[in-house]
Amino acid sequence: MKLIGNYTSPYVRKISVILLEKGITFEFVNDNPWVSESITPHYNPLGKVPALITDDGQYWFDSPVIAEYLELLDLAPAFIPRDPQAALQMRQMEALADGIMDAALVSVRERQRPIEQQSEVELLRQREKISRGLTLLEQYAADKKLDAENICVATIAVACAVGYLNFRRVSPGWCVDRPHLVKLVEKLFERESFARTEPPAA
């Protein structure tokens, strides 16, 4: 099994953590999807990472789809409930975390533009998305809908999202007034799977 991605993508990190937690042996192929010589479009026509190549040659792309595929392998631990309603609720929390990653990535790309071309309106819009998303995640953590003791696809996605905010210095001070979310991600960051997938220092 091969995972196409790069070391700084939070979506790739999410899948890497799942693979490591399930004990699935895989080869990591480091690729930059933003350059013309990228191999990613061969496996995902959208040119986005991660992409997973199975041992029998199937291609899977988009991190929620890959997470679903890995769950279908029926390897412990299970990260998605079998009950459809519970699974749907969990996937919505995962989608919220992924949306925070999306907004953070847009912010990073916008800040990489020449200063005179940057849109403060766009940056503000993304900051507001991130703030609203984090506030709801704080509520989920306070209500124990997200719990570090019950690692699942949602908690993994949340930790990867927060890790990316920290790594790219997006939304500094996000942890203020969100103690339950802080405690959740700090506990997850202690796991070996997260330590092994921490992005390289900039």
TrEMBL record:
Keyword annotations for this protein, in alphabetical order, are: Transferase
What is the protein's given name? Glutathione S-transferase
**Domain GST C-terminal: where?**
83-202
Q: Where is the GST N-terminal domain?
A: 1-78
Its top-level enzyme class, in one word, is transferase
Any one GO MF term held by the record is: glutathione transferase activity
Q: Among its keywords, does the record have Metal-binding?
A: no
Matches recorded under InterPro entries: Glutathione-S-Trfase_C-like, Glutathione-S-Trfase_C_sf, Glutathione_S-Trfase_N, GST_C, Thioredoxin-like_sf
EC number, UniProt record: 2.5.1.18
